[in-house]
Write a structure and sequence with these properties.
A: alpha/beta, D-Maltodextrin-Binding Protein, domain 2, 18 helices, about 50% helix, globular, B: about 75% helix, disordered N terminus
Chain lengths: ~400, ~325
């Protein structure tokens, strides 16, 4: 008797818990709709906790706009799917800071507001840097900063091999330098040719430097770029490990001091300075600096059901991208600022940034040229072709021809 | 709203029940009493049913729904994806990746299980003869199982690195020359297999070891009296009596191995040139590998994996029925 009463009570309780649980789950979104001065902010910087300068800058900007901020930091690779899911469920954050190639995907999904809708002023931003956030004349966000790739070199290794860095101006002279270094018993160049977006990112300066366009993967110029990389690996001028290297493992190889050159990004400049490594722009096929792809995150304002929220969000973003804040943020992130004024301030404080400011100036967005969401499809074929050629599974010409066919199929 | 009603109703009835029972229950009330106990029974089942529906049925149905519609990023958000039937499955079958991925999945699964089981069984039998330090050594064999997969996979990819890996350093020291373990299409699958076998051995060891303990000692004694040698004891006693445990070990091993993702992703990203791409890797690459997710084919590949595991689960149940005549 006692037991059965207790059991019944437990059953009733269990039902009650389930019922209230589902009820409260239903009621949450409607609570969020009401005028709420707490703004949500998502970024891919989990390395900065709430005591960091970055978090403090955001809080200060929110205070200026008269609201409070609740910030959540995600892992970069996690943020795209999180943002898509949140969009699907109608609870996108008020402000989203996300890797620049993702902007076109989210814009395509209809999740982001244009500068026209949210009233953001984007006129100060350098044109080549904002292009990654533009589709069909609409601007979907502003860069918080930019990074790009360049060619680091180890002066000690070059000196020992008798290579004068001033003579390295195009592909031919670079390959000649690599041969000299290898003949002197050291290793030539390391980069990241991994089968992910990172691999495409690293290959693009050579690809664009040959004069090739992303719309035609099977062009003569594209072939010359892939042949350059493949020959390096086949002749032992680049180690076999580049096929699986991420940019981090490639940098670790360079840090051993065995390598003459490494293709890597702005974010390694502090580490390079410590080791005495120096940097030149990546040469184009026939000399001059090759256009490298821009990296870095964009601040964007996702669509909300209550469009009165855009005003404060835009205010917070303008504050975050004011010259003072940009300089401070980009210095701590190892980025180059996206506006001329902020770049000048960075240069005044640290003249060694000059090659990087130049590199960022000649860089271009991967999703620019109105490629938008075509870029991820093309890029996947590009890194596949690179992998196939470097491993010897296919000749560079066959790999690129296949890639072009697959890309065309994917774009249909 | 309906849920709220369900909640209030049993509460009020519960009070009535309490009142009715403290008074002398009359025989006339029996039928309604039975109805009430049915309700109480359902109340007990409800949490499990709700849990299963929320965390098993719903994701599964959603995954099937994803795979029979054509989802783009836009239609994923606004929910207007058109119904395309089995088109996504057909596209997956026709894809150039399908053949290699199927072969890789089969080779990876079969070889992993065969080696894991054989090594695990050999070690279990070895440790079953208790000797000094056997418990300590057995515990050490569990280390691969205790390490986070991220750590094991990263360590393996370090050791197998072409230029600076310890394995190649050893091979070069004995004059065998460099093998591009992770970066050549011929070796990448072998490399991830070696790592996966190493990780799976302890699981087989533990389960088979406990299976050995359940075999009665008298059977071995009787066999010894009849003059059976060690080899005969293993094949005539240990192996047949271990069959039920072996079956479940193999089935669990199969399900675990079919879905292995972390080790391959960390060590080779499924490459180079798709040489170590399994269905699990392929599904992930389609859904999350680029900045433009392709949810529908990714879900289709995922469902194929579920069907595969399900088929083997059914096989296991059939086999168990045949083994167990009762």
């Amino acid at each position: 008797m006692n037991i059965s009463t207790r059991a019944r009570l437990a059953g009733v309780l269990a039902l009650g818990v389930v019922a209230t649980g589902s009820l409260s789950a239903c009621s949450t979104p409607s609570d969020g709709e009401s005028a709420n001065s707490e703004y949500t902010f998502w970024d891919p910087y989990p390395q900065y906790d709430e005591t960091s300068e970055w978090a403090k800058v955001i809080d200060a900007c929110a205070e200026e706009a008269g609201v409070t901020i609740s910030r959540t930091a995600f892992d970069t690779s996690d943020l795209t799917s999180k943002a898509l899911l949140a969009g699907q469920q109608g609870n996108s954050p008020d402000i989203l800071l996300i890797d620049n190639p993702v902007i076109s995907t989210l814009a395509e999904a209809g999740l982001l507001t244009t500068a026209e809708e949210n009233g953001l002023d984007v006129s100060e931003i350098e044109e080549n840097l904002i292009s990654a956030g533009q589709t069909d004349g609409d601007t979907f966000g502003v860069p918080i900063g930019a990074n790009t790739l360049a060619l680091y070199y180890n002066p000690e290794v070059l000196e020992a091999a008798g290579v004068d860095i001033a003579e390295v101006t195009d592909w031919e002279s670079l390959t000649a330098a690599l041969e000299k270094v290898v003949a002197a018993g050291k290793s030539g160049i390391t980069f990241s040719g991994i089968g992910t977006e990172e691999g495409s990112f690293q290959f693009l300066p050579w690809y664009w430097g040959s004069g090739a366009e992303l719309t035609d993967l099977a062009s003569e110029e594209a072939l010359s770029a892939l042949t350059l990389w493949t020959d390096w690996v086949n002749k032992g001028l680049a180690p076999n490990s580049v096929i699986g290297n991420t940019q981090t493992t490639s940098w670790e190889e360079f840090l051993t001091g065995e390598f003459a050159f490494a293709e890597n990004g702005t974010w390694q400049k502090a580490s390079a300075a410590e080791q005495g490594f120096e940097v030149i722009p990546i040469p184009a096929a026939d000399g001059g600096a090759a256009p490298a792809p821009t990296g870095g995150e964009f601040l964007s304002i996702p669509v909300q059901s209550d469009d009165a929220r855009y005003e404060a969000s835009a205010q917070i973003i303008s504050c975050l991208t004011s010259t003072d804040n940009l300089v401070e943020t980009d210095n701590s992130l190892n980025y180059i600022a996206p506006t001329a004024a902020a770049q000048q301030e960075q240069l005044d404080a640290d003249p060694t940034l000059a090659p990087w400011v130049d590199a960022v100036g000649s860089a271009q967005g991967r999703t620019g040229d109105d490629l938008g969401t075509d870029y991820p499809i093309i890029s996947e074929q590009l890194w596949t072709a690179v992998q196939n050629a470097l491993t010897g599974a296919q000749s560079p010409a066959d790999a690129l021809a296949d890639a072009q066919t697959q890309a065309e199929e994917g774009l249909e | 709203m309906t849920v709220t009603q369900v909640r209030t109703e049993p509460t009020s009835r519960g009070e009535q029940v309490g009142a009715a029972q403290s008074a002398a229950p009359t025989p006339r009330r029996r039928p309604s009493h039975r109805a009430r106990s049915a309700l109480v029974a359902w109340a007990f089942v409800a949490p499990v049913v709700v849990y299963l529906a929320l965390f098993y049925a719903f994701p599964l149905i959603r995954n099937i729904e994803l795979s029979v519609r054509d989802y783009t990023v836009r239609s994923f958000i606004d929910g207007t994806a058109p119904f395309v039937g089995i088109d996504n499955y057909l596209a997956v079958f026709r894809d150039a990746t399908f053949g290699p991925a199927l072969l890789n999945t089969a080779a990876f699964t079969v070889l992993s299980i065969v080696f894991q089981f054989a090594i695990g069984l050999a070690l279990a039998v070895f440790f079953f003869r208790r000797f000094p330090l056997s418990a300590t050594l057995r515990a050490l064999f569990l280390v691969p199982w205790l390490l986070p997969l991220l750590v094991s996979a990263s360590t393996w990819s370090w050791m197998l690195n072409s230029e600076s890996g310890v394995v190649n350093a050893f091979l070069e020291a004995v004059g065998a020359g460099q093998i591009n373990w992770l970066t050549s299409p011929q070796f990448s699958l072998i490399s991830v297999l070696i790592a996966n076998i190493w990780i799976g051995v302890p699981f087989n060891l533990v389960i088979l070891y406990s299976g050995l303990q359940s075999i009665p000692e008298e059977v071995y004694e009787a066999a010894s009296l009849d003059g059976a040698n060690g080899w005969q004891k293993f094949w005539r006693i240990t192996f047949p009596l271990l069959r039920p445990v072996a079956a479940i070990t193999l089935l669990l091993g199969l399900v675990y191995t079919l879905k292995v993702f972390d080790i391959i992703w960390i060590m080779t990203r499924g490459g180079p040139a798709e040489s170590s791409t399994t269905f699990a890797i392929w599904s992930y690459r389609l859904g999350f590998g680029s900045t433009l997710p392709d949810f529908s084919p990714a879900a289709a590949v995922g469902n194929l994996l579920i069907v595969l595991a399900f088929v083997f689960g059914l096989l296991y149940i059939r086999m168990q029925r045949r083994l167990d005549p009762s």
